[in-house]
């Protein structure tokens, strides 16, 4: 629904949330994403416990988010189902395609951490069912003004 920015809540059953049949993501780099998994090192958690949220059904479904950075690899298969071109923009080039250059990879990395799809391709994002937009505001060869930054947010 346009203008509705609330995540869809998992179905409640009695006093408890209905747990989905959770399986560890099959994405090949998931086990290297230490910041997501519920593993400990010497008894200390060094992660955000994304698996715990996923087990409760919080996957980003119904969420729209935007990364304001240096662009995105639009054709990356991890973004195929989640990328939202309608809300994306390149402030530097005044263009609807916020494509990262070969010198600009930070935005793609941030987008992957936030919303890479759970699709057995690469890694998985925290909110892997969220709709992802990119606003390209900064970049290796770009010069931004205060007015550019204000329009980017």
How do you describe this structure in short?
The longest helix is centred in the C-terminal third of the chain and has 10 residues, at 106-115.
Give a quick set of tags describing it.
15% helix, 3 helices, disordered N terminus, alpha/beta, elongated, 153 residues, three-stranded parallel β-sheet, two-stranded antiparallel ribbon
Task: Please give a structural write-up.
The protein has 153 residues and is α/β, with parallel strands linked by helices. The chain is 15% helix and 14% strand. The chain contains three helices and seven strands. It has helices at 50-55, 106-115, 146-152, and strands at residues 12-13, 16-17, 40-41, 44-45, 64-69, 89-90, 131-136. The chain has a three-stranded parallel beta sheet with strand order 5-7-6, covered by helices on one side. A two-stranded antiparallel ribbon has the order 1-2. Helix 2 (106-115) links the parallel strand 6 (89-90) and strand 7. It is elongated. The protein starts with 11 loop residues before the first strand and ends with a helix.
């Amino acid at each position: 629904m346009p203008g509705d920015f609330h995540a869809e809540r998992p179905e409640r059953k009695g006093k408890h949330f209905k747990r989905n049949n959770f399986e560890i993501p099959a994405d090949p780099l998931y086990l290297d994403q230490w910041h997501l998994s519920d593993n400990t090192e010497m008894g200390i958690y060094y992660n955000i416990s994304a698996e715990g949220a996923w087990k409760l059904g919080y996957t980003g479904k119904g969420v729209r988010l935007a990364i304001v950075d240096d662009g995105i690899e639009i054709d990356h298969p991890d973004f195929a189902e989640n990328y939202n071109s309608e809300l994306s923009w390149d402030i530097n080039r005044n263009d609807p395609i916020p494509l990262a250059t070969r010198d600009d990879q930070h935005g793609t990395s941030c987008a992957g951490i936030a919303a890479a799809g759970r699709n057995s391709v690469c890694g998985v994002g925290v909110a892997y069912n969220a709709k992802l937009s990119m606003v390209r505001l900064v970049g290796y060869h770009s010069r931004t003004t205060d007015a550019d930054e204000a329009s980017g947010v």
